[in-house]
Amino acid sequence: MPTIHIVGAGLSGLSCATHAATTGFNVIVYEAAGHAGGRARSFYDESLGCIIDNGNHLLLGANKTTRTYLAEIDAADSIREISPAVFPFLDFKSGKRWGIRPGKIFPPIWIFSSKRRIPHTRPMEYFSQIIRLRRAGEAETVADAVGTESLLFNTLWQPMSTAVLNTDATEASASLLWRVIKETFVRGEKASRPWYFPNGLGEALVRPAQDFLSAKGVHIRFSKRLREIRCSEHRVKSLIFSDDVIPLDRRDAVVLAVPPEACRRIFPVIKAPSDAKTIVNAHFRLENTPSLPGNGPFLGLINAETHWIFVRDNIVSLTVSAADAIADEPGHQIANRLWIEASAVLRYPLKCPPAWRIIKERRATFAQNPTQVNARPVTTTGVENLFLAGDWTDTGLPATIEGSILSGFRAAKLAGEKVKFAVYTDTK
Q1: Cα angle value 197/200/206 (rounded, 5°)
Q2: Which of 220, 282, 300, 412 could connect to 16 by a Cys-Cys bridge, CB 3.0–4.6 Å?
Q3: Structural domain spans, the chain
Q4: How far apart, in whole angstroms, are the C-alpha atoms of residue 335 and residue 34?
Q5: Which CATH number fits domain 3-43+201-274+370-427: 3.40.190.10, 3.50.50.60, 3.40.720.10, 3.30.428.10?
Q6: Cβ(248)–Cβ(236) below 8 Å
Q7: Is the peptide bond prior to 107 cis by the omega test (within 30 degrees of 0)?
Q8: Could you tell me which residues come within 8 angstroms of residue 214 by beta carbon, excluding any fewer than 6 positions away?
Q9: What is the pTM of this model?
Q10: Which residues does the chain have with pLDDT short of 70?
């Protein structure tokens, strides 16, 4: 039976596999690690004595592909919506708090309400800078487009760039950020609603997908590291693993759903982004469940090293995006410094950090600057039965959960069409 071979069981690989299996294809998944989920996974941490997420993530109301995936794997109830939409912020230096509260209608006239926008900003600043962002060229950064002098740069554009693109606004692609703004804040409150994972990433995105695939007869082959792809006549003929060689039927298709550095190693002719950005996450386990100012599940910080704080039960998780500058520091130094910020925000009396875990994801995303964005490959390759999936491919979206899942769906569709065509030609 013709098979779609998917290499990689991160979100792009899992979404590709579930989508292909849903449409009736025979699927095999190979994963180099001993677990699925890639960078969006949960695991038991010995030092904390509980399950934590590898990183902190939010979805937005506009992320329809991810919600389709969750519905497909029967996990739609694993995420929680914040309605009406609000993005709470705290200026760590001044102590001032505010929330960005998009309105319900398009065009975004909600900006004229002082209760919905950032304090001490004017409506026309938003409109003029959004227009400049929309008109930005492919080579412009966010800072090039909107300027760095207004209050909005530090309180809106910089937090948006680091959160969405994991890249400082002075480097980040303006056109890529605009695509997110256009689909969310410009479209109003419903498209901007934050969705979070109350039970963690694994329980929402990974375990249900594995259960779904298992029910379809698809099993992930773990600890299978692909070394090489052998091709002839513009087709993949075999997959060379560390411990195995798998020959392919002429009707088979292959999807490489691996990080860009792995893709270049396996198949060097593929164009792929070469620069990456780090994200550092700090997890602290408290004795009691703390409350953030505003009592929400997350809070953005301005004028602090920490960019976002998330609270789930008695675990406080801090995220520092675009964190290359601190990636080489010892974990205890990072924990001590970030705990100072966390304890101040939470008004927690403990001076020394409680039980902690620092996670440094050194290649969390590709560097989403104009040069690297231009290096993103499309799903198809010069090999007729080989396809690519991953948040680093040219999805038109940033390297996010939504982009990763969209890439998997696209690869499944194209690989499926190739298999169907090969089967059809065999019957002629």
Answers
A1: 105
A2: 412
A3: 3-43+201-274+370-427, 97-192, 276-366
A4: 28
A5: 3.50.50.60
A6: yes
A7: yes
A8: none
A9: 0.95
A10: 106-107, 424, 427-428
CA atoms within 13 A on the CB side of 350: 14
Q: Which CATH number fits domain 276-366: 1.20.1250.20, 3.50.50.60, 3.90.660.10, 1.20.1530.20?
A: 3.90.660.10
The residue written with tokens 């970030």 in the block is 338
Largest CA distance in the chain: 76
pLDDT score recorded for residue 112: 85
Same fold, 3-43+201-274+370-427 and 276-366: no
CA-nearest of 60, 57, 5, 48 to 27 is 5
pLDDT digits (tens, 9 = 90+) for 7-57: 999 999 999 999 999 999 999 999 999 999 999 999 999 999 999 999 999
Please count the CA atoms within 13 angstroms of the CA of 274 that sit on its side-chain side: 6
pLDDT tens per residue, range 126-153: 999 999 999 999 999 999 999 999 999 9
pLDDT of residue 113: 83
DSSP assignment letter at 155? I
The helix (H) or strand (E) run that includes residue 125 is helix 123-134
